[in-house]
Fold Oxidoreductase.
Amino acid sequence: MNRRSFVRTTAAASAAPFVVPRHVLGGAGYVAPSDTVAVGVIGAGGMGASNAVPLAMMDDVRIAAIADVDMGRVWESVQGRLDADDPGRRQEGEALRDAYESATQYADFREMLAAADGLDGVVIATPDHVHAIAALMAMDRGLAVYAQKPLTYTVDESRRLTQKAAATGVVTQMGNQGHSGDDGRRVVEVVRAGVLGPIREVQSWTNRPNGWWPQGVPATEPAPVPDGLAWDLYLGPNEDQPYRPGIHPFGWRGWVGFGVGSLGDMGAHLVDFPVWALDLGRPARVETRHTPWGGDREDPATYPLATVTTYHFAGLGAEAGAADAGQSLAMTWYDGGLLPPTPTIAPDGFTLDPNGGVIFVGERGMLIHETYGTNPRFLANDPGVDLAAEAADVPVSLPRVEGGIGGHEMNWVRAIQGQAEASSPFAYAAHLNEIMLLGVAAMNAGQPIAVTPDGRITNHPAGDALLTRTYRAGWELPS
């Protein structure tokens, strides 16, 4: 019986699996075999390497396998840390190098998952278009899943992950690390406590993609596939097409078919706190306005450079800070360097962080925080009211995650071990992901979309086809 089978079997009989204390078996530094979590990393360079670093530095985690379509890029990610001036970053590089060198290596993650008997979980940090198929296959094999944001490429995929996670009962986590941060959890507590009064509006923004990856640009000319890149595997479920410079290793985020743009990337951090604090369900109406697509509008290469998406939520209850049953709320998203208007109640010299943030607009004033929920500030409608002082008196009601933002991956491991609850499991994260991607669906629709409570689009000729995609033969989603 491997460790995964052991944990799943004993968990059915007890709230926590039986583990022999380390000190009984071999002293303070000993790691019992039943404590060691074996992890595979799918997409081991770039962000995958960042996710793997804290795992590689944990005594009770073993990176047993890595899968990547470009191992040269993986080792560049390692070497970049080894060559850093900062001693701490070099130490990370050494741990990552040792972990990766001892891991079994695959080009095709499907082969890794087929030989997954020794694994307890997988980290998925591929481009967006591969997330869902990898996560579904892993959960089918009983593996815990840590999937980077956005959780999926389409709304339909998000719903499938929700269903699969519930059916299998495996530990899941989306890589929106701000959800584990102390500041973000404090924001949620303060909003829920009513310090701002009923929330009437929410605004959020990011500077992405400016300076990060290209959008609003036409396709580059086809070129030979770089040495070491398994392009057919890189395409995954995407349609057959030639390699084009600029997609790999990171520009894919702005390319249609591979990524879902700025809203999919940063919405997981910035839309998170309004959805969480206000317990928002599906929006009833979504509209996205934007600059021109990159290339032919009928078959664009890249997403627009800047967008403004407005979500309308109807029928909010008291748990969402509504003053009256049935109250509606508008949540507006800006990207590409666009910002919401500076609040009229702000003092002279007040500025919004151009990198990103959120404004909760309540009847009594505003709460403004930066990306990941950090640096919350208050503006009161009444100059004589000290909202910050009132917020300080709000009791702590949400559990704090060990390590905060930096402990998001470790929290997932602790959840696998039965020592913690996952911070952002698919039961929550997939719903957040769906709300984000409905904004992308509205952008593809070219008009406002009406969404029914059960998640259907009723006012567009394409209808629910806006919520899914076509899959290349051999890369269809598992049932």
